[in-house]
Amino acid sequence: MKPFLSQLLWLCISLCSAWLIMHSMEYLISLKQNNRRLKRCAMLIGCWILSNTVIFIGDPFNILAVTLLFMAMVLISCEGSFWKKLTLGAMYASTILSFNVLRDNYLKPLFERLEIFLFPERRLLYDEYVIEQLSLDFIQIVSIFTSFFFSLLLYICTKKSAPDKDYTLSDHLWKLMLLLTAAPFSIVLSLGALFDIGDSLYLLPPHYLLTPVKYLPILLIAIFTFVILLRCIIILARQQKLEQQVMFTEINRKYYESMELHHFEIRRLKHDLANHLQILSNLPEEKRNAYLSELTENTAITQSMSYCEDTTINAVLTVKKNLMELYGISMELTIDICTELPFDKTDICALYANALDNAIEACMKLPETERRITLKSKAQKGLFCLEVSNPITSATESISENDMIPPTSKADKSNHGFGLKSIKEIVGRYHGSLELETSNGTFNLFLYIPLL
């Protein structure tokens, strides 16, 4: 093959290998949204350098330089906490570099012997320079195909085994994963930078060293560790998701109980209205006025509590409407639900209450004349839909597709910010969909869930 064509083929296949590695990583960590194309190019370059750098045992420069460069690319280009980026970067670096050491120290000498076997006439040439050029051309092509198949295997393995795209792990768990990753990462760095291969045997023609086989099992273990680490991430992500579901369920249960208690008080007051009227008829005029004044201060007496045929929705809306009137927030309701919804009552309570709580929180940042909330909900044609809209301040940032859950604006962030996460968890559990959007100074939450 002509040198130009072989170099072009090498470049194309090596870029494909880098692309596979980058997309394999994207199943575990996302790229930053700002200047996304630039970040993607930087990440692709980092993966290309990582997968194509020649790593010989006992040669510290290449392995240390490419490790630092790749880790820098991950920290700059990817989203997530520092510990997440550091762990996943080290995990991929140790795996790819372990394969590079295996390829350049064990496979390339075999490829050289294979070339001599396939082309025995080259042994008759005495010009070693010519032999070297021919040999490197053949070995280069075979090596890059080997790297491509390894990258493809890595991509398939990650795609089939990766956790849910919205998985989360706490920094505590990422630090634990970093400790587990340190073992294979230290192995490959030690082989590349510290081990001596002075006892290696030369092959003919003298291009590559035959590295002692004692290092081979260590490299294979370091490569296989990637599968174990990936499995650990999946198990930890599932465990944390279950813990979050339990936490959300408990929060929603307590919320529902408090809402039910409040609503029971409303129903009790309405039920006792006849008794109040009897008492009023028997009181003298001076006491009657004071009694009436005390009753009218309780807005629950005059509030309508029937918005639809679902009692949980009625309870939430009655309580929240009283709260909005207290804060000077106007509310526009359009509800078309003709029967009880077939969902858990605590989930129904959480959907409406959390959506309205976030809207109320946003409205409190605005002048009273601009405070308004629009709620539309219906259950028709096999779908339950809920839409809540409210104006926002100009300083509020837009929400992108990959940043579904905006942070809470409350000072105590450790005990707040669960509202939208709880909504998302409930919608996902019922196989529905949640959409958040900001446009023209309005925040809009829309969700739908198939009716059971």
Give the topology, please.
Elements: H1 3-26, H2 36-52, H3 60-77, H4 82-118, H5 128-161, H6 171-193, E1 201-202, E2 209-210, H7 216-271, H8 273-282, H9 285-296, H10 311-326, E3 330-336, H11 345-363, E4 372-380, E5 383-391, H12 419-429, E6 433-439, E7 442-450
Parallel strand pairs: 3-4
Antiparallel strand pairs: 1-2, 4-5, 5-7, 6-7
Gap from first CA to last CA:
64 Å
Secondary-structure element order, as H and E? HHHHHHEEHHHHEHEEHEE
Helix/strand-derived class? alpha+beta
| Overall radius of gyration | 33 Å
In the predicted model, the low-confidence regions spanning at least 5 consecutive residues are 124-136, 199-208, 395-417
* Helix count from the secondary structure assignment: 12
As a percent range, the share of helical residues equals 55-70%
Number of folding domains?
2
Mean pLDDT equals: 78
Tally of strands: 7
Tell me the major beta sheet: 5 strands, mixed
Oligomer: single chain
Strand content: 5-15%
* Global geometry: elongated
Strand order, biggest sheet?
A: 3-4-5-7-6
Primary descriptors:
452 residues, alpha+beta, Heat Shock Protein 90, 2 domains, five-stranded mixed β-sheet, two-stranded antiparallel sheet, 12 helices, 61% helix, 10% strand
